[in-house]
Amino acid sequence: MTENIQYGNWIRKKMLLILGLSALGLAILFLVSLNLYLKTITGILFVVLLISFSFPLYAYYAFSPRGGNLQEQVYTLIVDSLGKQPLENALDIGTGNGVLALKLAQKYPAAQVIGLDYWGKNWEYSQSICETNARTVKVADRVRFVKGDAASLEFNDAAIAAVVSNLTFHEVKSAPQKRAVVQEALRVLRPGGRFVFVDYFFDNQYYGQAAEFETFLHSLGLAQIEFKHLSEVLPLSRLLRHPKFFGKVGIIVGQK
Ligand SMILES: C[S@@+](CC[C@H](N)C(=O)[O-])C[C@H]1O[C@@H](n2cnc3c(N)ncnc32)[C@H](O)[C@@H]1O
After folding, report:
1. Which of 7, 76, 118 is the pocket-test mutation for ligand 1 (most atoms within 8 Å of CB)?
2. Which among 14, 28, 51, 120 is placed 20 to 30 Å from 186, CA to CA?
3. Distance separating alpha carbons of residues 84 and 25, to the nearest angstrom
4. pLDDT tens-digit map of 66-98
5. Within 6 Å (CB) of ligand 1, which residues are found?
6. Cα–Cα distance, 81 to 36 (Å, whole number)
């Protein structure tokens, strides 16, 4: 993918800014305070906040093109996992800045690609960035970005030849049961169609116990299914394998 693409980052800049400024504020308070009690409290809080800030800052760098470019690695993994057969259409659910959708369009020159997102205010992605990115990589004629809700997709059953989604399903507030979002994505996939989903599938709070979730996936009557930790298929640093980051992220690759 070209350097002129706006990737965005899975770590929100706004969150880094708030943590960074709060740590700075505490550092100043620590330095100017003369009261020993206040100095101790602000000192402890500063250390806690500095750690809370350094962790996502490191991840932000690791995800970005200037760092380890992990985002690009995950998109490549997803697109590679879809296989080589030509596709007439493909859908990326929760497309963010659309980079995964664009990679699909580049890999499958005959495919019409749809990137769907709700582009909520809490994220730093937008439909207009998606469209600019599509023009930059010269696939705008085959990629369409649409606003929608992953919990109730406005596509007919079996309308799509390939469905992908990255780090989105757990975010879908309109669906209390995240398994239902997975089912909704599979509803629009045509029989024989391929799918690749990456999400916090090993996090109990979203999907229940991993073994139960796997049983649930097998109960859907899919033709083929592979369910793994992301770290089994992508080398991740020890820090990124932490449960707060990618330790609970899984990848599901299959065919309906
Ligand atoms: C962590 S970001 C991942 C973005 C993109 N998949 C990527 O890999 O860069 C999660 C995305 O899910 C989208 N999202 C959250 N809830 C959604 C919903 N109900 N319907 C569609 N998209 C949603 C957000 O707008 C955001 O773009």
Report:
1. 118
2. 120
3. 53
4. 888 999 999 999 999 999 999 999 999 999 999
5. 10, 94-96, 100, 117-120, 123, 125, 149-151, 166-168, 171-172, 174
6. 58
- Ligand 1 mean position to 46 CA, how many Å? 32
How far apart, in whole angstroms, are the C-alpha atoms of residue 224 and residue 242? 29
2 pLDDT band, cuts 50/70/90, is low
Handedness of CA 20, 23, 27, 29 (dihedral sign): positive
Could you give the CA distance from residue 128 to residue 230 in angstroms, rounded to a whole number? 30
Q: Is the pTM of this model over 0.90?
A: yes
If one residue of 64, 130, 168, 181 were mutated to test the ligand 1 pocket, choosing by the most ligand atoms within 8 A of its CB, it would be 168
Phi, psi of 84 (to 5 degrees): -100, -10
In the chain, the N- to C-terminal Cα span, in Å, equals: 29
Q: Kindly state the tokens that stand for 186.
A: 């599979």
Ligand 1, atom 16, lies closest to the CA of 172
Cα dist from 73 to 69, 177, 193, 223, whole Å = 6, 29, 23, 27
